[in-house]
Amino acid sequence: MTTPEKTPLAITTINRGLPAGKMPELRMMPSPSDANVYGDVFGGWIMAQVDIAGSLPATRRANGRVATIAVNSFVFKNPVFVGDLLSFYADIVKVGNTSITVNVEVYAERNRLQADTVKVTEAVLTYVATDSDRKPRKVPPIETLIHALPGQAG
Ligand SMILES: CC(C)(COP(=O)(O)OP(=O)(O)OC[C@H]1O[C@@H](n2cnc3c(N)ncnc32)[C@H](O)[C@@H]1OP(=O)(O)O)[C@@H](O)C(=O)NCCC(=O)NCCS
Q1: Do residues 137 and 129 touch, judged by C-beta distance below 8 A?
Q2: pLDDT value of position 154
């Protein structure tokens, strides 16, 4: 029987140039089928993942379904290559009556053993909280979400 290796904490927690103290909403690795004829990853593939990543905090804040109404800005700052390990960070920057605007930043860990990390994409998207008829509904007050957390009294 083999004994599992004990990886030193310093190796498992090393910050490879990713934003400190933040958790990515998504981590993905594009494969050859996601690349164009030049071997770079399609912008459309990246846009789809950014939309999914941004929708996650929006859905939590809306406490239900959301629809993407607008891509306010989208910048491909650096190319993405097959085999890059992508981390998608998403932060809510504005909450309106029915809308939630989210900033998404994407980092690629490239040549991972050399800890080479590049910011590849930055985007701002707006989502609308929708009801079961796909019509806009009010974003609930944040207090109602906090009180609904499991294990919280009241
Ligand atoms: C999302 C949808 C239900 C909203 O309905 P609507 O009648 O267009 O909504 P409204 O005009 O009332 O606007 C809703 C909110 O979006 C905001 N909004 C509208 N157009 C916007 C734009 N171009 N950019 C940013 N925000 C916008 C409004 O300011 C409003 O926000 P607020 O309530 O916080 O003030 C409808 O537009 C829709 O179904 N769109 C298709 C969604 C879709 O298929 N997305 C792709 C797949 S998820």
Answers
A1: yes
A2: 44
Ligand 1 pocket mutation, candidates 59, 65, 69, 127, criterion most atoms within 8 A of CB: 69
pLDDT tens, position by position, 55-107:
999 999 999 999 999 999 999 999 999 999 999 999 999 999 999 999 999 99
Report whether residue 131 contacts ligand 1, using a CB cutoff of 6 Å: no
**DSSP H or E run through 17:** none
For the segment 111-142, what is each residue's pLDDT rounded down to a tens digit? 877 778 999 999 999 999 999 999 999 999 99
Task: Give the sign of the dihedral formed by CA 12, CA 16, CA 18, CA 20.
Answer: positive
The alpha carbon of 101 and the centre of ligand 1 are apart by a number of angstroms equal to: 11
In a domain, 153, yes or no: no
Domain count, the chain: 1
Confidence band, pLDDT 50/70/90 cuts, at residue 46: very high
Binding site membership of 26 for ligand 1 (Cβ less than 6 Å): no
Give the pair of three-digit tokens for residue 23: 């958790």
CATH number at residue 42: 3.10.129.10
Atom of ligand 1 at shortest distance to CA of 138? 33
CA 76 to chain centre: 15
Give pTM, 2 decimals: 0.89
